[in-house]
Amino acid sequence: MPEDDTIGRIIQRDLDRLPMLPADRWVPRTPLRRGPLQLSRLTSVAAVVLGLVVALGIGQGVRGLRERAAATQSPDAVGSIGASALVPPYLASPDSIVAVSESSRGRPLGAQSDATLQVIDSQTGAIRYTVPADGGAQAVFRAAGSELIVIDWPQAQGLRVDVATTDQRIRFIDARTGSITATLTEPRQRPFIGDWPAIGAAVSPDGKVLALQQLGPAQQTPGGQPDVVTFYNLETRSRTADAVLFTPGCGPGQLGFTDDGRSLFLVCSTTHFFVIDSGTRKAEHTGYLPPQGRFPPRAPGFGGMSVIGSSATVLTRDGQDRFVIRADGSISGMNLGQIFSDALVVPPGAVVRVPRQARAFVGYGPATPGTVVNDARIMDAGSSGGRFSITRSSVGGLLADDRGNLFGADSDGSIWRRGSTTVSDDVTLVPGTPGRLARLLTVMRTNAPTILSRDQAIKFVNAPNIRIDRIDRIETKLNTVGEVMANRSSGPVVMEGVDPAIPVWAIAVRGEMHSIRGFSDLGGRSAIFVIDAQTGEPIAFLASPDEWPASFDALPDRAPAATAPLTSPRLPSVGGSTPIGDISARSACDGKLGSARLVAAFESTAGVVADWVENVAYPDAPHVVSSDWRRLAPSAPAYVCYFDGQFNAPGGPAPGASIPPLLGRALILIDGSGTQLGPSKYGPSESLPLARPGGRF
Amino acid sequence: MSNVFALTPRERRTPRDATSGIAPAGILSTGIDFDAGVRNPRSPRHSLVEVDNAQDWEVLYRNAVPRVYPALLATLRDAELAEDALHEAFAEGLKRPPATRENLPGWLFRVALRRARRRRWGFISLRGQEKRAAADEIGALLDRMEAGRLLALLTERQRALVVAHYYLGLTQAETANLFGVRPGTVSATIAKALTRMRKGATHA
After folding, report:
1. Are residues A463 and A516 in the same domain?
2. Fewest Cβ atoms nearer than 10 Å: which of A84, A89, A325, A695?
3. Which of A137, A153, A263 is nearest to A201 (CA)?
4. Considering the entire predicted model, what is its pTM?
5. Cβ distance of A5 and B70 shorter than 8 Å
6. Beta sheet of A228-233, edge-to-edge order
7. Would residue A316 count as lying in a domain?
């Protein structure tokens, strides 16, 4: 019989022999990657297995997070504006090797052919191969990314695209090599107007069924067919007999299977949705999402709503409004109204996603602009009996000011979030296995809401189902929703569910625009696009039969550049109270110029800054031959700081004269120790656009 | 930022009797002079240290991990749960550091155990097969060890107190203080645990 001390010795001896946790796992993992993407507008991101986040930006293709090259897109490039209607959603294979995007390179705006699906190595960014596709192709992965299924409508040479005479083609492609293994042609005509990159397509979790949304011709077409969802047997590569579900008037939508494969969700652009039994291929439930007073959910091609399948399925709308549909086996007995009533418990800004294994990832917590989120939770759907128990009292405003946020899940449970798309496109990738609260503590930050600049607003111009082919004239004014709607040429209107005080950019466009869905095309040549001034989300589209929308000219411009005073207390100034640029540079710049307001702060290196200041070609720029920055190591940190305020003219007042202060901007450069190094520049804000090193000086 | 670092790793502190302060015989046998500062890689004891930032906290925490993790493994018999619990204790320390830096391993051990219980109750039904397999693996390893077999005879609560006392070197008073129970309860629980282990060893 062992004595007490012997037992103690045994415990000491044996426990010391237990395998030790590797040192790199002693503390919760820090963010896997974090950095600015510097895309003019981030439409979508995908986390892949090897940890790389692939991001797709409009007009700029696919970038990995490792890439830090600044975008050089010209803000007024018409091509980039048109591209917003042409770039389809990203697609990343589960096995991490490829991402797919449609290229619009070399494609005249408005043209309907020569689209190409690019299959890109997500680790290197190199194009592995391309898949020629006609019009707006759709693609899905099957069998853990080993097979790529591409759907398009090949056109006969010389045929007008808006003539619905083409048949649908489904090609099965070896995702690794790009070789086509099979082709299935179906007598399904191309939709009548425009191209359709955003139709729903999904492969069942067992890889056996392809559900494909197919849009009928426009409704006024004689003999037109309704929209349908067609099911294909992927083992026989044939259409499943009699497995067609009619979804009339659905329009471009999203399809998603639940993780258990039992249900299929289809959400239409009309807010109509279907819950489809995967076994019977029949709609178990249909209904409409609650009206929000805005446009219907945007098709995925616009980076809008996403459907995420799981055994407890969550349907999200990107933006402030999120809805949850529970499909955990009890949906047939549920009142859909109740579902949405439950869903409304989900607070604005909460992010809910159920990637797999019935896990719900819920991130929320108190947050105020510019502060670090100090509480974030990841919950497990199973922890509360399959329901999402969001404690209302503890819900703050996490991400409520960051409506562009998006959560995703990697195969290891990692969660990434996207910050504001309007300023820096910060993406933080954090490991997020349920319950590992600690891993979110120090990495989630919110950006303060910022109003888009005028140039940014022009980039954001878009509206659901509207394609801009050419722009002849474009002007913007900062207003509120209420002002724009009260000024409509056809009479004032109140948008239900939209706060009339929301700041918006009204963007008047004259050019060639088309409706890509509807009873008829647009009749006029001008329109006003109303977009959320903070997020760029479209709020309204006001077509005008005139050459120029007359109501636009009557609108005041609330942007500070205009002489009109700010009339709405809800309307922040352009640029917002938060500097644009890199968050990391703010602390280095802040307060370096007295009480002047820091409007932009960028992080750079001494080498880059030296090159910049020694090579600026602007006549009013300081001429520097050998910069002080050369004394520092090229990789030494440097911060480029812009301040707005009242500054005296350089050199001080002339003798005996009193020079009134200038209302203008200052550009100063700060090194890693906080010391200002030359040169600097003071002048009107027009002469000092906020830019990273390399721009105007 | 405070830089009052006074880390003086000391050798493993041995358990002492709560009333007499004398370590149980047979354990105080390492022959290491405390004041000589002999560094034992698994020794987490430090002198009083002031910290007021996360970096300092991580330093303290890392010093304690080699001691606390085996204790958690032996108590929870689940490597993944132990790792998660450890991480959560780390996070707890970041948010609400312990009032005193004394007996940090004990504090981490107690917080981690509490978090592990919460997690296990909340998520056990959803734990996947592979996680279960990981738990089985550490269980099998413990079963091959004499200490593991003895500790397996105990309830988790008994294991926690025995490990705290005999492995972390906490006195019964310290253990009682940490776990928020009366010293008599600790004493009785450990006594009952020892009886059970002795019986188990005899049967074996």
Report:
1. yes
2. A695
3. A137
4. 0.39
5. no
6. A201-203, A209-214, A228-233, A238-246
7. no
